[in-house]
Design a protein that fits this description.
The chain is mainly alpha-helical. The protein has two domains: about 5-55, no CATH class; about 80-165. It is built from five helices and no strands. The chain is flat.
């Protein structure tokens, strides 16, 4: 097994375009622990820091300050909004209950619930009858299929026996 040099692994880590055998080197990393250790040491070492200097020093502090400011403004908005939102929400709920109660009273007045109550046993009976009919149809069809299959198998057995008898 061919091992690659420290310089070759450094070029590979920097993704240099001169490295022609990138695929071979990747496959080798999966097989060789020694080269994997070398490659990891290059990545972890201070020699390999291509991103150093791209991020300014106070970047993290600036981001954290922006997050804190956003949280404070969100809290202020939340303190103002719930009072208005709860009143609107309670009014909306009251409206919905009033509409639902009105519809219920109208349906009672015209006897719709009585009609539904009287027709439910008929509907349940119809469903029970239809399921019985379906069971009968399914049972009949399966028995017909089994019978035809058994007849077909018996016919094959008879033909085979007659063929065997003729050969003797």
């Amino acid at each position: 097994m061919k091992h690659y040099s420290y310089e070759e692994w450094k070029l590979y880590a920097e993704a240099a375009e001169e490295v022609e055998q990138i695929a071979e080197m990747e496959a080798h990393l999966y097989q060789c622990d020694e080269c994997m250790a070398c490659y990891l040491s290059i990545i972890e070492s201070s020699e390999y820091m291509p991103l150093e200097g791209l991020i300014p020093e106070g970047f993290t502090d600036d981001v954290m300050r922006l997050i804190a400011d956003e949280e404070e403004s969100q809290k202020k908005d939340d303190e103002l909004q719930p009072r208005r939102g709860k009143k609107i929400g309670k009014q909306q709920i009251l409206k919905y209950y009033t509409i639902a109660a009105s519809i219920t009273i109208i349906l009672f007045h015209y006897g719709i619930f009585d009609l539904i109550g009287e027709s439910m046993p008929k509907v349940a009976e119809g469903i029970a009858n239809s399921t019985q009919r379906v069971e009968i149809v399914v049972n009949n069809r399966w028995s017909e299929r089994f019978n035809s299959t058994f007849q077909f198998l018996n016919m094959i057995k008879k033909n085979r026996r007659s063929d065997l008898n003729e050969k003797k």
